[in-house]
């Protein structure tokens, strides 16, 4: 039934959300879902909670291939689907290809450590996922923290992209409004020019009628000719004045053109300088990043060397402990042998005493003869026993001295190793603090550069606004001059045509300047985009470096804790061994015998 339903939904274009919670979907359902995700382009939310999609790897891999080929799904719920670390790896490969999914819920599965690492590695290439839930999957806390940092980073990136899109949309709207205003102004100018032409044609007709009347009047009256000659002279003077005004206007237009060209050259040089500065800063930042990466490699190598040294010291300590145990065992064996010898000699002594008493009871008469021999034999035995005891005491003293010297050497070596570890840890901490300070200084410098570039862009925009205002003022002056000339154009048809041609050329130049200003605005917008991209890259690099620094600090703390534990254990073991040796020496029969004497 699920297969038929999903086959029908493959060609559907209206369903936006699909909920298949608790339907016991397995291999057939997973394959049908993969086919649906490849073909459907309308579903935005898919809920698959309480199913068994992760039990069979082939079906789940088919589902993951479909998810990687889909670019429309935004929310996916896979809670309680028995997904293991292999299924998590398939999901990670699918997320590397997917560019639309924003929310993914994987709670209460069996992802584990390997699956968590695979998902964390895929987040470096996926920039659209905003929410990833991994609770109840036996994933370590450090991986969960890294996943949360990656999600925060993606959210910040999405907000920045939305802001840039909104700004671009607003700028496009403003550009369109400016274009509409300019077209309206141009159409108004063309309408005024057409009206002026109509008025000129009317004035030409009226002037022709007047000329005919004047010609008829000339035949009749010569006196009127003289007055007309005077009027013609006046008109010539007015024409000369108008030519001077037109020449002055041409000079003003040339001056404005020269100013605009100089301003455009200045803007171009400033933009080139900004580009060069941005390239230099990019090179510096890349060098800093390479140096930081090299320093991180050196730190890692040093950490590995320290770990090797700690292992060597642990092996040495283990050998020392084995030597101590061997010496203690030998001492115990020697003590046991000495005790056995003493007991044997005591028994022999008791037997001899009993024999002597029996002989004394039986043969009282022969006591005097045998007393001297027995006393001699007893003295010899006592001397032998004393020599054996002295030799054993000397051996015990030598063993004790050797154990004390070895223990002192071990303690000195431990003290040296501790001092070296402390010095190396202090040097590493100072090195890391210097790196942090350098990174903060580079970040502050990058922020200051961004602020300076923003200020330069604002100044360029202000200059562009001033140029537009200046152009508007020039247009107003041209309109006023046109109004002044329109009052006299009834008598100067030919000159007005020349002026119209010049005005059209000036309008073309102004349009060309307008296009140049639009090109400058586009360049400014491209520079703003480049600045935003650079700032986002710097933020990403800083976030990555901060994450690496935090990981290194955690490793250092773990190493310090291990070293402190090892020190405590070694101290406890040394104290236990010392107490045991002292107790053994004090409780041994040799020690008791020596104390009695």
UniProtKB/TrEMBL annotation:
Any single Pfam family the record assigns to this protein: LRR_6
Cross-referenced Gene3D superfamilies: Ribonuclease Inhibitor
Matching InterPro entries: Centro_Cilium_Assembly, Leu-rich_rpt, LRR_dom_sf
Kinase in keyword set: no
GO cellular component: centrosome; plasma membrane
Chief location: cytoplasm
Keywords: Coiled coil, Cytoplasm, Cytoskeleton
Protein name: Leucine-rich repeat-containing protein 45
Protein's organism: Eudyptes sclateri
């Amino acid at each position: 039934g699920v297969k038929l339903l999903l086959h029908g939904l493959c060609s559907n274009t209206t369903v936006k959300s699909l909920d298949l919670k608790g339907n016991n979907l397995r291999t057939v359902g997973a394959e049908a879902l993969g086919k649906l995700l490849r073909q459907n382009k309308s579903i935005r939310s898919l809920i698959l909670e309480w199913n068994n999609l992760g039990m069979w790897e082939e079906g789940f891999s088919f589902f993951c291939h479909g998810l990687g080929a889909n670019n429309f799904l935004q929310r996916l719920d896979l809670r309680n689907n028995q997904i293991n670390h292999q299924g998590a790896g398939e999901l990670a490969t699918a997320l590397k290809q997917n560019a639309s999914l924003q929310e993914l819920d994987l709670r209460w599965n069996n992802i584990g450590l390997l699956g968590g690492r695979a998902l964390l590695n895929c987040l470096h290439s996926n920039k659209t996922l905003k929410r990833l839930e991994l609770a109840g999957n036996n994933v370590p806390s450090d991986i969960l923290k890294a996943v949360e940092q990656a999600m925060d980073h993606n959210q910040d990136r999405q907000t920045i992209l939305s802001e840039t899109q909104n700004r671009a949309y607003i700028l496009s709207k403003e550009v369109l409004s400016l274009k509409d205003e300019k077209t309206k102004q141009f159409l108004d100018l063309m309408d005024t020019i057409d009206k002026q032409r109509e008025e000129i044609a009317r004035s030409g007709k009226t002037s022709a009628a007047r000329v005919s009347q004047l010609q008829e009047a000339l035949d009749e009256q010569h006196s009127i000719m003289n007055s007309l000659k005077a009027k013609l002279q006046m008109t010539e003077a007015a024409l000369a004045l108008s030519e001077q005004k037109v020449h002055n206007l041409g000079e003003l237009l040339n001056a404005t053109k020269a100013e605009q060209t100089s301003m455009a050259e200045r803007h171009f040089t400033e933009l080139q300088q900004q580009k060069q500065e941005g390239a230099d800063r990019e090179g510096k930042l890349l060098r800093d990043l390479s140096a930081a990466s090299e320093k991180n490699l050196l730190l890692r190598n040093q950490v590995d060397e320290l770990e090797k040294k700690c292992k060597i010291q642990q092996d040495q300590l283990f050998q020392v402990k084995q030597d101590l145990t061997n010496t203690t065992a030998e001492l115990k064996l020697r003590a046991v042998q000495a005790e056995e010898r003493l007991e044997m000699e005591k028994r022999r002594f008791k037997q001899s005493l009993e024999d002597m008493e029996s002989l004394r009871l039986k043969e009282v008469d022969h006591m005097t003869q045998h007393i001297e021999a027995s006393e001699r034999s007893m003295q010899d035995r006592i001397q032998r026993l004393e020599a054996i005891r002295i030799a054993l005491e000397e051996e015990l003293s030598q063993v004790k001295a050797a154990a004390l010297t070895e223990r002192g050497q071990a303690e000195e070596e431990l003290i040296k190793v501790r001092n070296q570890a402390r010095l190396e840890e202090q040097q590493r901490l100072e090195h890391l603090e210097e790196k942090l300070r350098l990174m903060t200084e580079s970040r502050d410098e990058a922020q200051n550069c961004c602020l300076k570039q923003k200020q330069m862009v604002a100044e360029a925009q202000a200059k562009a606004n001033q140029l537009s205002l200046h152009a508007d003022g020039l247009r107003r002056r041209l309109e006023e001059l046109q109004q002044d000339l329109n009052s006299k154009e009834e008598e100067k048809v030919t000159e007005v045509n020349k002026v119209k041609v010049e005005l059209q050329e000036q309008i073309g130049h102004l349009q060309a300047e307008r296009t140049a200003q639009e090109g400058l605005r586009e360049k400014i917008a491209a520079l703003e985009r480049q600045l935003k991209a650079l700032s986002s890259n710097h933020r990403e690099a800083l976030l990555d470096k901060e994450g690496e620094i935090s990981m290194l600090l955690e490793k250092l703390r773990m190493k310090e804790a291990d070293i402190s534990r090892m020190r405590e254990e070694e101290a406890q073991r040394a104290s236990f061994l010392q107490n045991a040796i002292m107790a053994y020496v004090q409780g041994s029969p040799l020690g008791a015998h020596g104390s009695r004497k």
